[in-house]
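Quick note —
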Amino acid sequence: MNKKILTFCGFRCDLCPAYVNNIEKKADKTTIRKGWNNYFGFDVPEERITCVGCDQEGYHLDNECPVRPCAKEKHIKNCFFCTFFETCDKLHSRADMVDEIHKKTKRKISKNEYTLFFRPYEGKKELKQQVKQSNKDIGI
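Predicted structure written out below.
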C-alpha cells in the first residue's frame, strides 16, 4: 500500500497521475490530458504532465498555485496547521475545486474517471479527515 502523500491544500500526490512516481502507473498522458481538459478546462501539453510534489524542489505542474508559496512561507506541513484554515480564500480555491466541478458535471462519472480525475484532488475531504484525526488524538 502506498503511503499517503498530501500537498499543502490536501491534494493526494500518491494518487495524482502527474506525480513523478505515478507517471507510468496511472494512465497514459493522452488520457490524463483529455480528462483534465474535459473536467477542469485546462489543456496541459503531454510533455508537461509531471510533478515532483508541492513539498519538493523541482518541477511543479501548477506554477500559479496560491497555496504552495503561502504554506512554504509559513513553514507549515499543510493548510490544516494554519491559523486561517477555515477562512482562507487561497485554500478554498484549491481544496474545494473538485467538489464544485463534480456538482457541475451532468453525466455519470465512471469509477476510473473518479480515480484519475477526482479522488487525487479532494483536498477538502483529506483536510477534514486530518481535523477528525487531530480531534480524536486530543480526545475531542
